[in-house]
């Protein structure tokens, strides 16, 4: 039995060499540079990569011996599943793909809650006087709902796919668009992938409706679920909307003008929590181990981190919570450094801050889940 797989691991995946060397011989690569020059991957049998690297024909064709692909990420929109299936047929082997749905959902929920609290503070409002509309109530949306319940902020959620799948009580979209806060927690899908496609679901007409009522629009899911050109036009025209964007069309080089006009702008950092990242690495390692390397030893103890932040009591510890998440400082630094960078240096600013500005998950006192999130199922399933 083969016990020395050749594994290519993105150099910025935490503990990547230590963990995936249990599968075989590891080589590391630059996830940005490999997009234009994938020849360093030609001997790889296993690819472990971040979402900055599109998994499509150029990359797949560079790896004739590929047997499995893994990405320690929630989302999968960097994966061309049609190309992967075509590659499987050409090679005559399964070539499974693994990712980590839900691994960073607590971090995303804390990040989103911090955005809501900062927006309320900016508006001079009690957040409990606002209603939050959650568009997409999978892992991240459910985790946010539990936190809103804990501090007494009312919410409703719109999720037709989950309603069909498990009977979730999905609110009408019209009701969500009437809320003071609209927050997006959906995967990126097209009409060929879903009966409820999400690409540009927040269109110009939807933005017009949101701006009539909502004070805050938050996107921590995927940049292309919002028509960002329409959003930029709305903000230029003076729409009374606090836009909080963590994800962007054109990432990792979002339009500087849009970055400058957002209330909060951050570099895809909502899920950048130490514990969540380690959890996602564990999830894909375990999937690879059980699928193609059952002889490999278990993951190392370095993946067993427990957050040192908290436990916090709410609402009394809200200021400590905001300090722990650090969203205000992150947004300030990102806006300054990104806008000050030369155009050809912005990609590196975005990616460096995304990787380097990690934080810990927040431990809450008395937090109970709002309800079980749906099982991931399809690789384009709930975030």
Can you walk through the features of this model?
The structure is a single chain. With 383 residues, the protein is α/β, with parallel strands linked by helices. The chain has 2 domains: 5-99, NAD(P)-binding Rossmann-like Domain (Rossmann fold, 3-Layer(aba) Sandwich), CATH 3.40.50; 105-272 and 309-364, NAD(P)-binding Rossmann-like Domain (Rossmann fold). It has helices spanning 16-20, 57-61, 81-91, 105-123, 139-151, 160-166, 173-177, 204-213, 228-236, 256-261, 274-292, 318-325, 327-340, 346-356; strands at 5-10, 24-29, 46-48, 68-70, 97-98, 132-135, 155-158, 181-184, 216-219, 242-245, 264-265, 309-312, 362-364. It has a 6-stranded parallel β-sheet with strand order 7-6-8-9-10-11. The protein has a 5-stranded parallel β-sheet with strand order 2-1-3-4-5. A two-stranded parallel sheet has the order 12-13. Helix 9 (228-236) links the parallel strand 9 (216-219) and strand 10 (242-245). Helix 4 (105-123) crosses helix 5 and helix 13 runs antiparallel to helix 14 (346-356). The two termini are 36 Å apart.
> If helices are DSSP runs of H or I spanning 4 or more residues, what is the number of helices?
14
Number of domains: 2
Q: CATH H-level name of the largest domain... which superfamily?
A: NAD(P)-binding Rossmann-like Domain
- Alpha carbon gap, first and last residue: 36 Å
H and E order: EHEEHEHEHEHEHHEHEHEHEHEHHHE
**Form type:** globular
CATH class of the largest domain: Alpha Beta
CATH architecture of the largest domain: 3-Layer(aba) Sandwich
Return the CATH topology of the largest domain: Rossmann fold
Alpha-beta content class: alpha/beta
